[in-house]
Amino acid sequence: MKMFLISDNVDTCTGMRLAGVDGIVVHEREELSRTLEKVMTDSTIGIVLLTEKFGREFPEIIDEIRLNRKMPLIVEIPDRHGTGRRKDFITSYVNEAIGLKL
């Protein structure tokens, strides 16, 4: 299985390419939708990395895929400007997902 990056900036895409992850830079809603549709048809891609900006700006597109598809796994990553998440994001995410307080 491969990883694939969909980024909103060239710097993140370049950094991930140096790590061996192929990707594409998109800026518009339609570009994101088309790219995700194309990625969903590629059975060799197991993880899709998205910059957090897409999760903030187009949550309905991302949530629809997460709710209705098992593969690939969609993971939002921070870009070079850092993350907009709280420090305890992972803990609160696990608490919400499984209902246990860690």
From TrEMBL:
Q: Which family does it belong to?
A: Belongs to the V-ATPase F subunit family.
* Key words of the record: Ion transport, Transport
Superkingdom of the source? Bacteria
What protein is this chain from?
ATP synthase, subunit F
Species: Anaerostipes caccae (strain DSM 14662 / CCUG 47493 / JCM 13470 / NCIMB 13811 / L1-92)
Q: In the record, what terms sit under GO molecular function?
A: proton-transporting ATPase activity, rotational mechanism
